[in-house]
Amino acid sequence: MKTYTFAVLPGDGIGPEVMEVALEVLKVTGEKFGFNLHYKNADIGGIAIDNHGLAFPDTTKAICEKSDAILFGSVGGPKWENLPPKEQPERAALLPIRKAFNLYANVRPGLLYPQLTDASPLKKERIPSGIDIVCIRELTGGIYFGQPKSTQTLPNGEEQAIDTMVYQTSEIERIAQVAIDTACARGGKVCSIDKANVLETSVLWRKVVTNYFKEHAPEIELSHMYVDNAAMQLARDPNQFDVLFTENMFGDILSDEMGVICGSLGMLASASLGANSNSLGHPFGLYEPSGGTAPDIAGMGIANPCAQILSAAMMLRYSFGEQEAASSIEKAVEVAVTSGTRTGDIAFGLESVDTASMGAAVLQSLA
Ligand code: NAD
Predict the structure, then answer these.
(1) 9 forms bridges with which residues in the sheet?
(2) Quick check: helix, strand or coil at residue 173?
(3) Are 311 and 71 in contact (CB under 8 A)?
(4) What percentage of the chain reaches a pLDDT higher than 90?
(5) Per-residue pLDDT tens for 334-351?
(6) Distance in angstroms (rounded) separating the CA atoms of residues 133 and 124
(7) Ligand 1: residue whose CA is nearest its atom 12
(8) Binding-site residues, ligand 1, Cβ < 6 A
(9) Helix (H, G, I), strand (E, B) or coil at 77
(10) Is 194 a catalytic residue?
(11) DSSP 163-230
């Protein structure tokens, strides 16, 4: 029987609560589709600061290095908010782990079932059949990592800060390929987002993307849009997009906007794919819910586990090549939620269930 090895980093707040449910769903899926799952738990984020003095300890890194994928919860919370910004869990865990594993491609499905349109702030008539789009964000380049990056005091006493936005051809081409692969498995349409009317990096982005698609995927319908317009179009008519793809900072903002229009963070999964292949020949990746640690409900056993479960399904699809098993989990979540089992964040007048019961409903749909 095949065995897949992955690291489990539940993190803080609701992370461990929803992770427990996702692992149970993975176990049952493995039994159904004939594979074993071998995983090791490790600390990340606030709990790692408490236990090891560092948000991303070497022991955790070593466990990830021996794995074919990382299933991640979320990190942070009020307990660690008074640490210096560089030591706070999100910054001290997420950026280093992305860097350590060269996680350059963030894939975020924006999925809202028609039965959950109440969860969206958009008017129902704009999204009569829900939302089904994907945002691909470049994750290791651009203004978040470019050098120089500094703050200095000028001779006149003013402070000046500098960030640098930088991209090169190879970085743009590899993320373009992820957009192509994603679009091929969906509606065959890609909209590349930039600010080519102002930014040099965007002029290069648009040129490289146009040439790359022409050469490697002429069958894909490619369009371009300025980021300010894209922000408006997402709120006006999200389903005009199939696959949105863009650089790091624009993607940070647009993918959060996409999260808002799709309703609860408790339903939104994500994958961050690495440049290197794992031992199975698939991309190494980190899979996590789009939301944070939800300190307002942590410890109450009422968090929605679906985003974590759907992130686990993405891990099966991208890092283990188990398409059918992944689809079966996605379908089970859809059936459970649309047939009325809902945690509080997506209940809208229906009686809400707790985390464990939501998980049980997904398991029942899987059977
Ligand atoms: P959040 O996503 O944790 O919470 C925002 C709202 O969404 C809250 O009302 C919360 O209850 C709700 N929510 C989120 N996930 C839910 C779920 N699964 N089920 C039900 N409701 C859910 O964002 P925040 O409050 O801005 O941040 C809280 C902490 O999480 C902060 O410390 C922040 O730094 C951290 N954070 C971590 C990550 C990450 O680890 N990738 C991402 C975002 C925020």
Answers:
(1) 72
(2) helix
(3) yes
(4) 94
(5) 999 999 999 999 998 889
(6) 17
(7) 294
(8) 14, 18, 74-77, 90, 94, 265-266, 288, 291-297, 303-304, 307, 345
(9) coil
(10) no
(11) EE----HHHHHHHHHHHHHHHHTTTSEEEEEE-TTT-HHHHHHHHHHHHHHHHH-TTSEEEEEEHHHH
